[in-house]
Design a protein that fits this description.
Order of helices and strands: HEEEEEEEEEEEEEEEEEEEEEEEHHHHHH
Shape: elongated
Distance between the termini: 33 Å
Helix content: 25-40%
Oligomer: single chain
């Protein structure tokens, strides 16, 4: 594993791939990165049918095929992604369907509904999807989370494999330790290391060969074929769940133990916020950019406007109730108040992400994909900060108030009569034409 080559753009791009799972949001072909070793991707795009997302008609490409150049990292996101030539650097993609049938010399990070890996990957392979099939050699580690994962007989993992899924079938070879959390596991391949299995149903087929020890945790009984061989000890570990009701649940996330409900709640909250942000940025991209620019140009003014808006709205609703005739309007204001808070919070996070873009990437394409990648990263950081006592709550409150104020200022600017003035300056510079090609 070559960890020294990791760069900030790769982290943001990988977060983009994982986050796109929550809504299958389409994006352009991304080939921008701050390191000089990342070159331009040449993309050929097929027909682009329209789809409808929250009432907004969008045009996306049906298929994106990328042709790799020398010393190049490829970042691609669309409905179908399939490279046409060897990828000399790293390959990161998000799509409804990904077919990787060309050699990748570096790392590969893939997210999609259907993922098929037919060509070797020189370093680590990370996958998040629904239906995953690995049919080739992986030079580093394998990390995969999906509904179903299948490692065929031709698959060979050079290092450790960590799998999280509903159903897992392993027919290939793993030259390192194997850890699986699933509902059902069928091990019918070779593992040249220790194995840890956590599942409701565990089966060892006739071709199963484990060089090390086998540790397993299951609510049922392990099924082992007579031809299966275990080089070390077989150890059944006790169930360690928060309560007895979970012991027989048979869910793939059993290993999370008593912290599972909180962990799942945080994960679902993160995905829900990303889905909301995707709609917000896709349907109102100009408004989101304008609100972010208002905060950037006058942060104290945005905070003041946001505070006034969030304080006076419930007071106005209370006064309207006293007029009797204003009760319907009062109820409407109260119903929209949570939406106002949500939009303010999203706008505040978007401001942070745009600031991060301007610092980390001096030449940043103002594409949806890159904006969404940095938004996902900023949201993750803010949610982590939220866990800090007092400071976390203060950060969230300031971002929400500033975001609401930025949106209010942008709305006021749009309502002003007269000729349109100059647009609010963007916090990032436009990219050169050779940095990205849009689908």
């Amino acid at each position: 594993m070559k960890h020294a080559k990791k760069t900030p753009d790769r982290l943001a791009s990988f977060v983009l791939l994982l986050s796109l799972l929550c809504g299958g949001v389409p994006a352009s072909v991304l080939a921008a990165a701050p390191d000089k070793s990342t070159a331009t991707a040449a993309a050929s795009v097929a027909a682009a049918p329209g789809i409808d997302l929250a009432g907004a008609s969008l045009k996306i490409a049906t298929v994106v095929t990328t042709t790799a150049l020398a010393s190049q990292n490829i970042y691609s996101a669309n409905s179908v992604v399939q490279p046409l030539a060897t990828v000399e650097g790293d390959f990161m993609a998000a799509a409804g369907k990904i077919v990787l049938d060309q050699f990748v010399r570096g790392d590969a990070a893939l997210a999609g509904a259907s993922i098929i890996v037919r060509a070797p990957v020189g370093d680590d392979l990370r996958i998040a999807g629904a239906d995953v099939s690995v049919e080739s050699a992986v030079g580093g580690e394998l990390l995969a989370a999906a509904a179903s994962i299948h490692l065929t007989k031709t698959a060979r993992i050079a290092s450790a494999a960590n799998l999280f899924a509903g159903d897992v079938i392993i027919d290939g070879t793993i030259d390192g330790p194997l850890k699986v959390n699933a509902k059902k596991v069928l091990l019918n391949g070779v593992v040249n290391g220790d194995v840890t299995l956590n599942a409701a149903e565990i089966e060892l087929g006739p071709q199963a060969k484990v060089a090390g020890s086998l540790r397993y945790r299951t609510s049922g009984e392990l099924k082992k074929d007579d031809a299966a061989s275990i080089g070390g000890a077989m150890i059944r570990e006790p169930q360690s769940f928060g309560n007895a009701a979970n012991e027989n649940s048979g869910t793939w996330y059993q290993g999370m133990g008593e912290h599972r409900p909180a962990g799942m709640a945080v994960l679902l909250t993160y995905l829900a916020l990303l889905a909301s942000a995707a709609v917000f940025l896709l349907v109102f991209p100009v408004f989101a950019e304008g609100a972010s620019s208002r905060i950037n140009m006058a942060p104290w003014r945005a905070l003041g406007a946001g505070a006034i808006l969030l304080i006076t709205t419930p007071l106005l609703a209370a006064l309207l109730v006293l007029t009797i005739l204003g009760i319907p309007l009062s109820l409407l204001l109260l119903a929209l108040y949570p939406v106002m808070l949500m939009i303010g919070y999203l706008a505040g996070i978007f401001f942070v992400s745009r600031r991060a873009q301007s610092v980390l990437l001096k030449r940043t394409p103002a594409s949806f994909g890159m904006n969404f990648a940095f938004f996902a990263l900023a949201l993750l950081i803010v949610m982590l900060l939220r866990q800090l006592p007092f400071v976390g709550s203060l950060v969230v409150a300031v971002l929400t108030i500033a975001g609401a104020g930025g949106c209010a200022l942008e709305l006021l600017k749009a309502q002003r009569p007269g000729p349109a003035g100059p647009a609010a300056p963007s916090m990032t510079q436009p990219s050169s034409p050779d940095r990205i090609q849009h689908a």
